[in-house]
Write a structure and sequence with these properties.
- The chain is mainly α.
- The protein has one domain.
- Helices cover 85% and strands 0% of the residues.
- The longest helix has 37 residues.
Amino acid sequence: MVELVVTIAAVTLLALGVLGGVLPMLPGAPLSLAGIYLYWWRSGFTDPGLAVLLGLTALGLLAIVAEYAGGAVSATFGGAARSTVLVATVVGIVALVLAGPLALIGGVAGAVFCVEFYRHRDPRRSARAAAYAVVGVLASSVVQVLLTLTILVAFLLAVL
């Protein structure tokens, strides 16, 4: 009975991990990794096998990187300075905590635009950097969902 409860809890954590790609306040990849390691612990560190465990862990770490670096990396591709990315990251986190996911996007876009406009006095250049940042934030969510969904499916195929 305990094994069934732990298995259900592990699969629930993996499913919540997929939702975490869409819901910013839910740490998707860490939840997915917690589900995998909970199941691995329950199995006596035998199931899934070491190769599968390492592969799923690598996907989880990649999803974490995508979550936290997507907007920043894309903003730099759009021409934003590292200092702009740092300001936008702080503003985005504060906006997310205070007002939710849409505020995160608006906060990042607004911060990138304002800082880049202050630096260059070029509205087109500033708008381009802000647009790249927004695309990066949205794309990182898609990447997170795809990676955590892959983790869930691979886990189910490997252990069930």
